[in-house]
Amino acid sequence: MLRAAGIGHGDEVIVPAFGNIEVAAAVTEAGATPVFADIDPLTYCLDPFAVEAAVGPQTSAVVVVHRFGRSADVARLHEVGQRHGLLVLEQGESETPYAEVAQRRERAAYLDRRLRGVRTPEGSGGHTYQQYVVRVPGNGRPDRDAFARAVQARGVECRVPVKTPVHRMPGFRRDVCLPETERAADEALSLPVDASLTKREMNRIVSACNALGGLLQPAF
């Protein structure tokens, strides 16, 4: 899409650092330079205010990535694009059948009602729960990682959705301030919410998480 739009050498493209490396890599492959902007802490997608602050004289485009089943604030991002003459491209997630989305929402609502000690995801009518991402409070990454290991030891699959933001990876390192991106990478944990989960499995998730209280001492 970038090449088809004429994006190349001398251009800068604003992208999120919270997520996969593929978007920044695609910008580089097109010959342009990726510029990282911070995310909205509720949606994990690009924050329109952060995008506007990152616009410079060489900025030509913005790549918006929808994350975990939540959509970015596309309307406001397009407004930013129009004000600065930028191309706004979107990278969506794979579509899920309606019946499966409905079951995920049902399981997500169950977790929302029963989980304690973790911050559950901000719900909205359009959330499809590709992932059910909670925040583990406490001392950042040490507590989150210790919490994840303890939950796994109780037979619950969970994973860290983004271990390292792209602006911290070799080849893309930038001296840029992205506090919400860093905080999300340190606190976020993805819990199961698949449509195939049984009531017993859902109860196991709740019991495992609530038994820990959501806050552990740092792991040494």
Secondary structure: elements and pairs:
Layout: E1 12-16, H1 22-29, E2 33-37, H2 48-54, E3 59-65, H3 74-84, E4 87-91, H4 98-114, E5 132-135, H5 141-153, H6 179-187, E6 188-191, H7 199-212
Parallel strand pairs: 1-2, 1-3, 3-4
Antiparallel strand pairs: 5-6
Protein name: DegT/DnrJ/EryC1/StrS family aminotransferase
Pfam families: DegT_DnrJ_EryC1
Keywords: Aminotransferase, Pyridoxal phosphate, Transferase
Short structural description:
The C terminus is likely disordered. The longest helix is centred in the middle third of the chain and has 17 residues. By secondary structure, this protein is of the alpha/beta class.
List keywords for this structure.
220 residues, Aspartate Aminotransferase, domain 2, Aspartate Aminotransferase, domain 1, 2 domains, four-stranded parallel beta sheet, two-stranded antiparallel ribbon, PyrdxlP-dep_Trfase_small, transferase, DegT/StrS_aminotransferase
